[in-house]
Fold DUF4306 domain-containing protein.
Amino acid sequence: MKIIVRACIISAALHFVYFSLTFLKGYIITKAYVPDVGKDESVYMLQNEVAFGFVGNPFIFVYSFIALAFTCFTIQFVFQKLTRKGSFR
């Protein structure tokens, strides 16, 4: 059970890092953006074309969490078996 909990914690930490970096990238891009209003006359149209977020399957994050936890569990299990006895006995 200890390996499963550790695998879930690693998966959660990696997802947190991924979402944090994605948020940080969006924040930096948003703060660094300087609109060029002088070229276009239709500022109203530009404001209507801005989209925040994304559209997709929200369960993809659950699936990726489970897949990453399973991968971490498998790696830890194999590593533990190899280091304890030297082979798969």
